[in-house]
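Figure S4 source data
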Amino acid sequence: MSKITEYVARQPDANGHIHYPQEEHDIWRELYLRQVGNLSQYACPEYRQGLKDLGLSGEKIPQLTEIDKVLLETSGWKTSAVPALISFERFFELLANREFPVATFIRSKEEFDYLREPDIFHEVFGHCPLLTNASFARFSHAYGKLGLAASKEDRVYLARLYWFTVEFGLLQAKDSSLLIYGGGILSSPGETQYAMGDKPLVKPFNLVDVLRTPYRIDIMQPVYYAIESIAFLDEIVNMDIMAGVREAKKLGLFEPLFEPKSKAG
């Protein structure tokens, strides 16, 4: 089994500036240049506008203080530097406070294509551009408040809602054409090409169906859920999501469309 890199988040100095070595800027540049060519064809326009507003480029890893200036002006959000994976409790707490968690490390060359933990490229390149959009920002805030008040058991169901929207959500127009808004896809060139191909199943968003759909974090997704526009996220906010959770519990999970994870080392 390949060795898993142990990442350590970089700490900001007294002015909030994080000093990254040049080799880490080089990794950002390679990741950025490899994916930016896909964006004009596959990313939703709201994401592309956010990328422009944030001034993200392939030159260097951006400073969170620079990201915060734009987010605060456009949607009232800011980032929050975190070590890596954080608890559900802390995650919901941050979102409820309009703070988006960003791990301040970048993946190694050895884990260039697949990373077990979200790094700064995934968080900033994948998610932060859409936080400049009012509907996406409102959805993220409402989701955080809902999760903070939910039980541990209910949070597992709510995680599926986040997974199939914020992380792996698609937009599907009336002509059936697809665009991407999920940050898990937008930060992965491999998943971008896969999601836009003919292998995965794309289903229209249905709250209870989403809450009943199991997923694995370490494979290409066999199924995606599509909404008609970013503005539809406001409609989801107005749904009785916890009633959906209760219904999903009653009906049970769908059979997974993937093989169970091997326990072999």
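Figure S5 source data
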Amino acid sequence: MTTTGAETVIAPTRVRTAADSATVRRKQGFQHGGWFVTPFLVLFALFVIWPLLRGLYLSFTDANISGDGANLIGLDNYREALDDPLVWESLGHSAYFTLLVVPCITVLAFLLAMLAHHIERGKWLWRLCFFMPFLLPSTVAANLWQWLFNPGTGMVNHVFGIETPWLNDKSYAMLAVVICTLWWTVGFSFLLYLAALQGIPGHLYEAARLDGANAWHRMVHITLPMLRNITGLVVALQILASLQVFDQAVVMMDFLPGPEGSTRTFVQYTLEEGFTSYRVGYASAISIIFFLIIAAVALARMWLLRNREEGGR
């Protein structure tokens, strides 16, 4: 195509003008939107970034709870943490709790969501009953189940006709915390599954029913595949939350580490070192190690999700 000299000069000018206009609009949008995100960024920096940086600095010192006499000691706190048997024991308790809670809560939330989704009468009541415990504060839920598991007056032993020392035996103490957690937190995952079930197109089930698929086949070949993403989200959130278990375990055991330390979690041990032994520097090192573990789990989840999405294309 032939063009005149005037056209050759004008065309780039028009393109450059359009690009400049888009840049101006983006800058104006950022300037206006920046006022809305600034309060969040300030609070995020104040309550997340600054404590993280402060904790990282303290992990290289021998600081105590008073903050006086903090001397740099390099990696000594980290070396001690790696050789501390209670660090590994508490981490094992947190991992054990996570292995018990995550599969159970995922399956239970799915079954409750299926029930609430397909039941016809009293649907709102079922949804309310399943979600209501999640609205309770952690201390209320833990105190409630502490009473239910009481060996002498608790309803659990009375109803089932057993004499299990739930809170006084290391073989049952963590199981009691798991049961409390399932009852208390299943409502959140239940709500996610219920919302996902309502988003599955009904014509898929109609087509499968016309093809002769029974209820089991419809669930296996339609429901579960359509819920794959939400299941991954539930599992990831529950892993991150379970690794940080603290409230219910501490309250149910009257702020003690349980029989023979069987319910001492990683977070609880960190607080014990920081506020009971007054070793803030050492507690900061333990918390940084725990932060790295949580970050590794989150990054692994993101990597697996990205690989699955790329493999599905």
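DSSP finds 13 helices and no strands in the chain. The radius of gyration is 27 Å.
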